[in-house]
Design brief:
alpha+beta; ADP-ribosylation fold; 6-stranded antiparallel β-sheet; two-stranded antiparallel ribbon; 5 helices; 8 strands; 28% strand
Length: 173
């Protein structure tokens, strides 16, 4: 967490990062050409053609904790890979160079959009912000690669029963 505090970053998976490197930019996903996770289906940033970022410059621990409760950017479940022995996350944090902070669209714009149109679009309260269109890799000042690996839950637990049912169902596909 200390490496994220005080920074603005985009979070993705290592697989998606490979695509970012090929493109030379973090592209928006307005067209839905990349995987869309549940929260992204109605995302303010995605639907308006922006790249979503997190803003931890304020260092307000209460706001950060509230965000983690809504969107656990330290290991989102939808970025995990489930195996027989382990649950694995291959995360990539791309830190926006402060020279480009003037291009950030503030979080309040999602609320303003709702007030003007009556259309509710999902935004992570207070800490999510956006850049229109895309972010060239030259705007990224550094990259943090994180691999998290934790044991799969035991089969005789409630979490384990669900986990192993999901594994079994995916093997049938």
């Amino acid at each position: 967490m200390n490496r994220l505090t005080g920074r603005v970053f985009h979070l993705t998976t290592r697989t998606s990062f490979a695509k970012i490197q090929e493109n030379g930019a973090i592209c928006n996903n307005k067209s839905g050409c990349y995987t869309i996770y549940t929260g992204s289906q109605n995302s303010y940033g995605r639907l308006l053609g922006c790249v979503c970022l997190f803003d931890l410059r304020g260092n307000n621990l209460e706001i950060i904790q509230n965000t983690l409760d809504c969107y656990y950017f330290l290991g989102p479940t939808w970025f995990s890979r489930h195996g027989r022995k382990y649950i694995t996350w291959d995360l990539v944090y791309l830190f926006l160079d402060s020279k480009y902070h003037n291009r950030l669209i503030p979080n309040s714009m999602a609320y303003n959009h709702y007030m003007q149109t009556g259309q509710y679009l999902h935004a992570v309260s207070k800490l999510e912000l956006w850049i229109e269109n895309g972010i060239p890799l030259s705007w990224i000042e550094n990259i943090l690669l994180i691999k998290i690996k934790e044991p799969a839950p035991a089969r005789n637990t409630i979490a384990g029963m669900h986990y192993w049912a999901v594994i079994k169902a995916s093997e049938k596909r």
